[in-house]
Design a protein that fits this description.
With 225 residues, the chain is an alpha/beta fold. The protein has 9 helices and 7 strands; from the N terminus they run H-H-E-H-E-H-E-E-H-E-H-H-E-H-H-E. The chain has a single domain, classed as Rossmann fold (3-Layer(aba) Sandwich), CATH 3.40.50. The N terminus is likely disordered.
């Protein structure tokens, strides 16, 4: 289904109020994800929102196709992509662009919003080249900011963040790996991302503390044969 247009005035209002934007901190989730995409790749951007990651990838020579279930943000993203569609991963039987196999599929803070992420990943796997790459980021529910209030019986959803009120799934490092593997992928790298502790989390020893300090989980995976 093609993107539905919105009036210019509405688009401006949405771009001002939309809660999700690119985080440019060097070790924040978005920069860790973007550095994992090789330049000049063909990229499928799942849950592309207003196109803030697509624009960064396009600037690095990538050709990017996008989809999102919100037609209003899709209309804002059109200039960043080869093509962008209004698609709900829980409702579609197959992804668009059957003529393309992509070098990279990017699911940045998307799968926690999906009812059946295993099914979504199986669809994505069919659209990645055999030696292509899946990059997933997910909020880490085991982060200290969630654990400590939970000790005192507090578990409150918010408009954005780890406990975003639109999240349907919650993940730890272990369950995130299991979900990606059950979707038909082999995990090659699992790292934590954080504005405050990101540099520390890039080291192998960070496995001892990454569950506590990582705001997001970033997974690099390959399709299983």
């Amino acid at each position: 289904m093609s993107a539905q247009p919105v009036r210019t005035s509405s688009a401006h209002l949405l771009s001002d109020s939309f809660p999700y934007r690119r985080n440019t901190h060097r070790y924040g989730t978005h920069e860790v994800v973007l550095r994992s995409v090789p330049s000049d790749s063909t990229v499928l951007d799942l849950g592309c929102a207003t196109g803030y990651l697509g624009a960064a990838l396009k600037a690095r020579g990538c050709r990017v196709w996008g989809l999102d279930r919100d037609p209003a943000v899709v209309a804002l993203a059109e200039s960043c992509y080869e093509d962008v569609r209004t698609i709900d991963l829980d409702e579609c039987a197959e992804l668009p662009w059957p003529e393309h196999l992509f070098d990279v599929a990017l699911a940045a803070d998307v799968l926690e919003h999906v009812r059946d992420p295993d099914r979504a990943l199986q669809m994505v796997r069919r659209r990645i080249r055999p030696k292509g790459r899946l990059i997933v980021s997910l909020p880490n529910v085991a982060h200290a900011s969630v654990r400590l209030p939970l000790l005192f019986g507090r578990f409150r959803y918010a408009r954005t963040g780890i406990l975003d009120e639109t999240h349907l799934r919650l993940f730890t490092f272990t369950t995130a790996r299991e979900m990606v593997e059950s979707g038909g992928f082999t995990v090659e790298r699992l790292v934590g991302a954080s504005d405050h502790f990101g540099a520390l989390l890039q080291h192998r020893m960070s496995r001892l503390v990454r569950g506590l300090l990582s705001h997001n989980i970033v997974i690099l995976a390959r399709p299983k044969p």
